[in-house]
Design brief:
InterPro entries: TMEM107. It comes from Panagrellus redivivus. One of its GO terms (biological process) is non-motile cilium assembly. Its main location: membrane. Keywords: Cilium biogenesis/degradation, Membrane, Transmembrane, Transmembrane helix. The chain has 136 residues and is mostly helical. The chain has one domain (5-33, 42-129). Helices cover 81% and strands 0% of the residues. It contains 5 helices and no strands. The longest helix has 31 residues, at 42-72. It starts with a helix and ends with a helix.
């Protein structure tokens, strides 16, 4: 049986690192989200800044939750492989987002399809582990 946890951990860490880097380099993504006929409207810039901060912050929180769940309980092999492939795909897409500046809405789509399902799977595994424990 091959070790699956090491590649999963590395993929989750790589995804988290790319999200962390995008969080501190978000000004270009905000400008890419603005329409071409943009006039200096401070509210629009603040809205997009808040949107990308929330999206990337939630992604980081979910990734930290996944790492904690990985340390608490080893998930089944199928979940581990799905997590591994999902985070690898997310890293490749984030690399594309870094090279070609993308609007904020693309980060939300990436969050919905990569960070949320894997974190949800870890939460379901955690809840099922509590159901198996019998309390006196």
């Amino acid at each position: 049986m091959a070790d699956v946890m090491t590649p999963v951990f590395l993929a989750v860490m790589a995804h988290g690192t790319m999200i962390f880097c995008a969080l501190f380099d978000r000004q270009e993504y905000i400008m890419a989200s603005l329409p071409p006929s943009f006039t200096e409207d401070e509210e629009a810039i603040e809205d997009f800044d808040a949107s990308i901060c929330v999206c990337l912050g939630l992604s980081l929180v979910f990734i930290v939750g996944e790492v904690i769940a990985l340390f608490r309980q080893v998930p089944p092999r199928s979940v581990s492989l799905a997590t591994f492939f999902t985070h690898n795909i997310a890293c490749l897409i984030l690399l594309k987002f870094t090279v070609d500046i993308h609007p904020v809405s693309h980060f939300w789509i990436l969050f919905a399809f990569t960070s949320f399902p894997t974190a949800l799977a870890q939460v379901i595994i955690l809840v099922k582990s509590f159901n198996k424990v019998k309390y006196c």
